[in-house]
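Bit of a strange request maybe. I'm writing a small parser for structure token strings and I need a real example to test against, not something I typed by hand. Could someone generate the tokens for this chain?
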Amino acid sequence: MTTPTQPTPTTPPTPRTQVLEALRHYAVTYQESAHQLARWMDLPIVDGTALGEVIWAEREGAPLTPARLSSRIGLTSGATTALLNRLEAQGLVARSRESTDRRVVTLRPTEQAHERIAPFLRRGGAALEAALDDWDDDALEAVRAFLAQLAAVLPGASDASPTPAS
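Reply from user aminoacidic:
Good idea to test on real output. This should exercise your parser:
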């Protein structure tokens, strides 16, 4: 009969490790919310995630191209084309040529997508706004700068990412 192993002693958490753990927890929770969005929209997870990215990019004033969407969700260009075909067939995404370069395709959520997703976003948005209300503008700016700095050093943040050691 085996006995349960005792947990190994660990060093006490430092503020740095606690921040990194909180960021990891946020990333996991954010991913779970993307899965909830997909279920809300009755879509496969990857389709719901892609739709969320298209909607978020439009709200930021920087609509996505299929190539940029492919990069964000980690799919090949062929898989992204198939995904966009599904979303377009359901009336959730439209492709348009808005650039002077006619080769550039822009992805836009449709009015139907906005209508279907609005209750989900309102529910989550109200909770986020309430959480942000606890912080003053100076604190929020410090958090924004901190997160931008961390994001800039993550692998894949630039084309100059180091190659893995062999």
